[in-house]
Amino acid sequence: MTEPAIFQRALSGKPLDFTGADFQLVNQTVQKTQELLKKFNHIDQTNAERRATLSRVVGYNIPESTEVNAPVHSDFGPHLFFGENVYVNQGVMFVDLGGIYLADGALIGPGAMLITVNHVEDPAHRRDVYAKSIHIEKNAWVGAKALILPGVTVGENAIVGAGSIVTKDVPANMVVVGSPVRILRRVKGSTPDEN
After folding, report:
1. Its pTM surpasses 0.90
2. 43 vs 40, 47, 50, 89, CA distance in Å?
3. Which of 11, 57, 153, 157 could serve as a FRET partner for 183 with CA atoms 20 to 30 Å apart?
4. Residue of 42, 119, 125, 135 marked catalytic
């Protein structure tokens, strides 16, 4: 099934008119996601039942090797893309209209926030939004209460320290900390890139 044009525009980073007729499709999807997440977060379910509920949110079967702990929050839902062996701890907030891609082995710490949406600066259009995707690459680890902002890629094997604010891409195999983040050091056990 082809996604509505407004969803495709969101994934491509184009501005979205909050007052546009097609924005209702976003609102309808948000409503459906919120109902499903109430079930995911508040009704006693097995891991398989939770995975099935979350699969309805995203629109595809979440890999059996991926674990997402309740509660989890999303303001949209269908633009969450989970790889194999992903682990999402409790209390994570996904603002995923622009697309959040969690590659194989990605770890997301408790209370982390991944935000793909921003508002237009012009006060006359402040409710309008645009989105930029977030990519958490293979085996990257986002620490507890870290904030990942629109358009950021966290490189393979990288570690984002707890409480950090990430405004720019994080290189592969690096540990970053702070607000905004700075490179602390290379990940232990990683080998320097051969370029």
Report:
1. yes
2. 6, 12, 9, 18
3. 11
4. 119
Domain 5-186, what architecture?
3 Solenoid (2.160)
End-to-end CA gap in the chain: 42
Condensed to tens digits (0 to 9), the pLDDT of residues 150-179 reads 999 999 999 999 999 999 999 999 999 999
Question: pLDDT band for position 46 (50/70/90)?
Answer: confident
E-assigned strand segments in 83-160: 87-88, 92-95, 100-102, 107-108, 113-115, 117-119, 129-131, 134-136, 141-142, 147-148, 153-154, 159-160
- The DSSP secondary structure of 20-57, one letter per residue, reads STTHHHHHHHHHHHHHHHHHHHHS---HHHHHHHHHHH
- Could you give phi then psi for residue 67, rounded to 5 degrees? -125, 125
For the chain, the structural domain boundaries read: 5-186
| Cβ within 8 Å of residue 32, ≥6 positions away | 77
Per-residue pLDDT, 1: 59
CA distances from 170 to 92, 128, 156 (A): 20, 28, 9
Percent of the chain with pLDDT over 70: 98
3-state helix, strand, coil in the chain (%, to 5): 20, 30, 50
Annotated active-site residue 119? The verdict is: yes
pLDDT in tens, 111-153: 999 999 999 889 998 888 899 999 999 999 999 999 999 999 9
